[in-house]
Amino acid sequence: MTRSPHAARSTLAVLTAAVAATVLSACGATTFDESLATTATTAAVTTTTLPTGTAAELLPRLVAEAASLSGVMIDGGDERSVVERMAALWDAVEQEVGTNRADLLAPFDASIALAEEAVQFERAADADKASKNIAALVEAYLGA
Questions:
Q1: Domain membership of residue 75 as a residue range
Q2: Dihedral of the CA atoms 129, 133, 134, 137 (nearest 10)?
Q3: Where are the alpha helices (DSSP H) in 34-77?
Q4: Domain count, the chain
Q5: How far apart are the C-alpha atoms of 70 and 79, rounded to whole Å?
Q6: Does pLDDT of 52 surpass 60?
Q7: Does a structural domain hold residue 66?
């Protein structure tokens, strides 16, 4: 018994419709819960004021902040604030240091990054290492 081309097309059309119906029936209706919608959003606004002063004034403060970081971490204090103050102090003097000692820019940047990573990954030993590096860099800059 041979099938006619018309019968084969009819069978294919029925199978295609059945597959499409099965696939489409698996898709559920999407509903929107109006109670979850908000009418207004409020973004947190933060402002950062850079410390002012010369490198000779601000770098010793950077050394003090760096020296306190591991202790703050160990005591469960606000280490994020300490590292933010460190970054702000560095940002305030970076241009002056770069003008006078461009060779110290990369090591300072790396030491600040190490302090930030110490906080991110909760590694007080890295905070101590960053502190020692910063103290040596400040000594190299101010002693020059």
A1: 55-142
A2: 180
A3: 55-74
A4: 1
A5: 8
A6: yes
A7: yes
Rounded Cα gap, residues 14 and 22, in angstroms? 12
Average pLDDT, the chain: 83
Q: How far is CA 17 from CA 9, 20, 25, in A?
A: 12, 5, 12
Place of tokens 């002063």: 53
Distance CA 135, CA 16 (A): 75
Q: Is the pLDDT of residue 36 over 60?
A: no
Q: What is the pLDDT of residue 45?
A: 47
* 36 assigned to some structural domain: no
Read off the pLDDT of each residue in 86-93 and give the average, rounded to a whole number: 97
Residue 9 inside a domain? The answer is no
For residue 84, give every residue at least 6 positions away whose Cβ sits within 8 Å of its Cβ, in sequence order, or none.
Answer: none
Q: Is position 95 within any domain?
A: yes
Q: On the CB side of 55, how many CA atoms lie within 13 Å of its CA?
A: 22
First to last CA, the chain: 102
